[in-house]
Amino acid sequence: MLRLLIRFKLLVQLLFAFLMNSDIAVIFRMFVERRALISQSPLKRYCVPGLNCYSCPSAVGACPIGSLQFWFNDLTMKLKFKERINAAGLYIIGFLFLCGSLCGRLFCGWLCPFGLLQDLLAKVTKRNIALPRILRLMRYLSLVIFVVVLPLFIMDIRYSAPWFCKMICPAGTLTAGLPLLLADEGLREGIGIYTYIKGAILLILLFSFFVSRRSFCKTLCPLGALWGLFNRFSLFKLRIDRESCTNCKKCERICAMNIRVLKNPNSSECIRCLECLKGCPVSSISFGIERESSNTKADPSPGEM
Amino acid sequence: MKRVALILAAMLILLGCRESEREELVYELELHNYSGKNVRDYLEDSGAELIVLNYWATFCAPCKKEMVDLSRLQSSFKDKGVLVVGASIDNASKLSLIKSIAGELGVNYPILYGLDAQFDGQSIIGLPVTFFINREGVVLERVDNKRDYSFFEERVESFLALESGFGNAGEESALESSYYSLSYSLEKRSDSKYRLELSLRPQGEYYFNGEGYPPLKLELQELDGIKFTPRLLEAAGVEKEGLLTWQVEVEKSSESDSFSVEGHLSLIACTEESCNMVNEAIQLRLNF
């Protein structure tokens, strides 16, 4: 059943990308009225499990990372003025932890629209070089510094301070910044240093997508960084049947994230795209909940290998 | 010892200067709960020449930054009858937060809060939004997005000049022919900027440039000392008894106050039975 679904993964990704951005009428209205507009759908109060920018004109869900940063801003302001804080942030954090503990980084592989974009672009060259560790560790900096620390410690109430959204997020630049700036002349007048920084980051990443698959997920995505930490403990995990495995390493060649699948199938880098599962000639890889009776093991015990 | 005393004295004097500066600023913040009420009720009683109505919210950071500039605007133009009014769409339960923020930003104008995110029926989606409203309650301009002090200053000055009746605001002239009636009027916006409004109306049974015909054109000649934006005016057509209006921004750099502007009008005037090509030179008299 899972194998069947995997064959249609691209369709599933397209479906989610469309569902999360289905208010297309807004895009038309925006260009007709020549001003920045974003969807007013009531669904936008709910977070979607993916990097789906709130400011994308047709988006009908809220990016959890964006929401979190704004909540941290609000928290700081409320604490400063000794006002009651709102608990929304707890819902967001709880939602993210729930997703993570259920299936780790699965949504990265199957649901995130920006992930879909990277997958599609990678089909052009099919090159996929492994990136050095230091670049891959940047995603934790992205999470800790730009999503948590900076938004919390900005004291000035006059500055919007969702620092990841403001300085880094290429998904936002591409799906929100670009269309809004194209439509609205007033916004174009306000272009400043952050526009250039984000534009540069987007350009660099766009080139890198052709050389190393899912390079954004590998190096910068704070959401993936957080969920990746759950991979090891999530309810649904990858398992390798060591008995049937022939060590052909096909899974490692297929892996989008350049993971040593046989050594560490539930690595924090794994986006659970399940292509290794699809590609394994002897079907040794499985994804699911642990059953006591099976002899599949998630990680090799010290005696083996 | 003498030097130390001099330095201390200088410091005290400097500190003293700062203190008195702060005392001169009059803190005119008033907060009014307008939940369920109409902003218009407050504006009617204000008695101001020009109202700058600024919609904001406690969660909108660019709004708060703009409010600092608006406070500066209020102090600069208080004597000229300009009133800045803050309109917060926050719920009335947020009163103490609004107070804290207004205090922190140094707001010196009245704030209405608890308002709906709409004005005159127009919904307000993005913040901040600023409306310039004249003595009669007419909305002169709606500005979306955050602006800076120099923008507000320029706008307020030009609206004040407009409202005090500088120049021949609204004086109309017209050109008539058997096919069309072209009326135009010139309105002063600021020192060298004017707005020329042109209205083209077909006479009688005629309609202009129907389906299948090229667009109708009115071209204003280039002149030294005046700049028209745009200079070439086009439209797909005008139906019978319809009205076509154009707005042209005019910038006058010459000293002269009266200009004769040549123009060229080309259109196709049709009735049910036949069509006539109109291709003629026209002359507009502009009195600045």
Describe it for me?
Chain A has helices at 2-7, 9-19, 25-33, 64-80, 88-103, 106-110, 113-125, 133-153, 163-167, 170-183, 185-189, 193-209, 215-219, 222-228, 250-254, 275-279; strands at residues 237-240, 285-288. With 305 residues, chain A is an all-alpha fold. Chain A has a two-stranded antiparallel sheet. In chain A, helix 4 packs parallel to helix 8 (133-153) and helix 10 (170-183) crosses helix 12 (193-209). By secondary structure, chain B is α+β, with helices and mostly antiparallel strands. In chain B, a hairpin with a 3-residue loop joins strand 9 and strand 10. Residues 15-27 of chain B have low confidence and may be disordered. At the A-B interface, helix 4 of A face helix 3 and helix 4 of B.
Topology (elements, then pairings):
The complex is a heterodimer of chains A (305) and B (288).
Chain A: H1 2-7, H2 9-19, H3 25-33, H4 64-80, H5 88-103, H6 106-110, H7 113-125, H8 133-153, H9 163-167, H10 170-183, H11 185-189, H12 193-209, H13 215-219, H14 222-228, E1 237-240, H15 250-254, H16 275-279, E2 285-288
Antiparallel strand pairs in A: 1-2
Chain B: H1 2-24, E1 31-33, H2 39-44, E2 50-56, H3 61-77, E3 82-88, H4 95-105, E4 111-113, E5 118-119, E6 122-123, E7 129-134, E8 139-144, H5 149-163, E9 171-176, E10 180-188, E11 193-202, E12 207-208, E13 216-220, E14 226-229, E15 232-235, E16 244-252, E17 258-270, E18 275-287
Parallel strand pairs in B: 1-4, 2-3, 3-4
Antiparallel strand pairs in B: 2-7, 5-6, 7-8, 9-10, 10-11, 11-16, 12-17, 13-15, 13-17, 14-16, 17-18
